[in-house]
Amino acid sequence: MMPWMRKITAFVFSAMLFFQGGGMLHVNMEKTVDGEAFPPGARWLDTDGNLIQAHGGQVQVMPVPDGNGGKKDCYVWIGENKTSGHLGNAVAVYTSEDLYHWTCHGDVLRPLSDVAQIDTDPYFAALYGELNAAERQHVRECIGTDMVIERPKMLYNAKNDNYVIWFHNDGPTEKNSYYYDIGMAGCAVSDSPFGPFRFVDRYRLSECPDGQIDCYPFSRGEARDMNLFLDEDGTGYIVYTSENNKTLYISRLNEDFTGLSGSEYGVDYIRIFPGAMREAPVLLRENGRYYLLSSSTTGWASNQARVWSSDAIFGKWRNDGNPCRGRGASVTFDTQSTTVFQAPNGSWIYGGDRWNAENLIDSRYVWLPVRFEDGRMSIEWRESWKWEN
Ligand code: DGJ
Predict the structure, then answer these.
(1) Helix (H) or strand (E) holding 74
(2) What is the per-residue pLDDT for 22?
(3) Contact, 192 vs 180, CB < 8 A?
(4) What is the mean pLDDT of residues 217-240?
(5) What is the number of the ligand 1 atom nearest to the C-alpha of 6?
(6) Are strands 198-203 and 348-354 parallel, antiparallel or unpaired?
(7) Residue 6: what pLDDT?
(8) pLDDT tens across 191-215, in order?
C-alpha cells in the first residue's frame, strides 16, 4: 500500500474506532504495569525501569542458559526495539518467570549503519569478519539501519541446540522508493537466545503453484508480516503474508529451521485465503486443532481480526470470523495481533501491539485472555486482569 493510501486508511479506521467507543479502550494509557496484573495498553517497564521494546514480537516458553552451563525453561519475549523509530530496528530479547516482570537481555540482532563497522566494531567483526567484501556489503544492504526489520520471531532448534530468528526484512528497490518493496524474510542464527545473532541471509519464500491464481504474479515469493510456529513433533513452520499482502502462506522449515523444507505444494507449503488481504499472522495449536489469527492490512491503524481453524496445518481451513468479544471487538481492541501463548496454569493469552504511528517507541502492548470452546477461539476485553484468575 502506498503511503498516502495508508494515511487515508489510518484516518478511516481511527474514525471507526472513535465511533465504536474505542476511546474507552485507552483507559490505561497513563498507567504502568505494576507487576500484579495486566492493564491492557499501560506503560510496561522492564526490571531496569526502561520501557519494554519488544514490538511485533512473540512470547513463548523455551530453554535458555541457566547460568551454570545448563538450560532452564523460561518465558522469552522477542520483538522490535523501536528506539530507532520505523527503520533499522534492532531485535531485543527479554525473559520472565511470571509474565509480569521482564529482564532485558539487550539487542540480540543489531543493524549496521556502515559496512566499515565490520572492521572497526569488535561486535560486528566477530560475526562478519570472515566475509569477503561483497558479502559484507550484502549484510549491510539487508540489515542496515535504514532498512525495515520487523516482526522478529525465534525458534529453539533441538537438533542443533541453537536458536533461529526469522524477521520481515524490507526496503526500497531501484524501481520503487517505498520502504516495503523488497518483501523478504531474513534469517539469523545464534548458540544463545541472548545473541549475538549472525545474519544468515534474506529470502523470497514459497511461490503460487501452477494452476492456481496468483494474486500478484509480478513479484513471486514475497514474504512480509510473519510468525514462526513449532509443532509438537518438532517441525517448524513459517507463516507469512505474500502476493503483495493479499494471501497468507504457511511453509514448513527445514530441519535446521534456516530455510524451507521444499517446494511441493500441499507437502511443503500451503496457500490460504487467496486475496483475503491478511497480515500479522499467528499460528497456534490447542487441543489438537490449529488456529490462524490475523489482522487486515491498514498500516499502523487497527482493524478487525479474523481467525481460521483446521485439524491439519496443510488441511482445509475454516473461517471462524472475528474472535474478539466485548468493547472494541470490531477493531481488535485497537491492536494488531502478534502472539498467542500459554500462561503457567495452561490458560491462553493474546498479545497485540497498539501501535503509536506518531511515536512508535511508545507503542503499547495489550494482553488479553483467550478461550477455546468447541473448536472456536475467542479473545475477551478486560480493563485489567491476572493470568492466575
Ligand atoms: C502493518 C504491519 O503489520 C506492521 O508490522 C508494519 O509493517 C506496518 N504495517 C507498517 O505500516
Answers:
(1) strand 71-81
(2) 57
(3) no
(4) 98
(5) 11
(6) unpaired
(7) 62
(8) 999 999 999 999 999 999 999 999 9
**What CA–CA distances, in Å, run from 267 to 206, 292, 293, 308?**
12, 18, 22, 20
* Grid coordinates of 360: 512508535
Report the Cα 339 to chain-centroid distance in Å. Answer: 7
In the chain the first and final C-alpha atoms are separated, in Å, by 42
Q: Which residues of 360-386 are buried (b: 16+ CB within 10 A; e: fewer)?
A: beebbbbbbbbebeeeebbbbbbeebe
Q: What residues does ligand 1 touch, defined as CB less than 6 Å away?
A: 56, 150-151, 225, 279-280, 299-300, 336
Q: Which of 224, 279, 294 to mutate to test ligand 1, by most ligand atoms within 8 A of the CB atom?
A: 279
The per-residue pLDDT for range 3-59, each reduced to its tens digit, is 666 666 666 666 666 555 556 789 899 999 888 899 999 999 999 999 999 999 999
Task: Report residue 290 as a C-alpha cell.
Answer: 490449529
Ligand 1 centre to CA of 151 (Å) is: 9
Whole-model pTM?
A: 0.95
